[in-house]
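User: Let's play a game. I give you a shape written as tokens, and you guess the letters that built it. Ready? Here's round one.
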């Protein structure tokens, strides 16, 4: 469960701290359920511009979210098109 107001994701009883950028991106994916979101759209949503620096930074944010959410959900890369949210937990 995402607590956008306080910047946490609750994995059962465990509270996972999220940075404002991680929170923004995770919320973006949750709102779109399990739809594939083109990578360019993800980068533009986070940073408002699409270039080499913002592309690398967005990948780092995705990696950090995946690491924090291990076993609960994953932002899954889909055929170099983009990413989609996949729930792994209950």
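Assistant: Ready! My guess for every position:
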């Amino acid at each position: 469960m995402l607590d956008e107001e306080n910047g946490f994701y609750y994995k059962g009883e465990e509270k996972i701290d999220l940075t404002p950028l991680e929170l923004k991106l995770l919320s973006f994916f949750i709102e779109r359920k399990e739809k594939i979101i083109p990578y360019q759209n993800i980068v533009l949503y986070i940073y408002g511009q699409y270039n080499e620096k913002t592309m690398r930074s967005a990948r780092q944010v995705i990696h950090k979210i995946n690491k924090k959410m291990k076993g609960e959900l994953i932002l899954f890369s889909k055929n170099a098109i983009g990413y989609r949210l996949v729930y792994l937990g209950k």
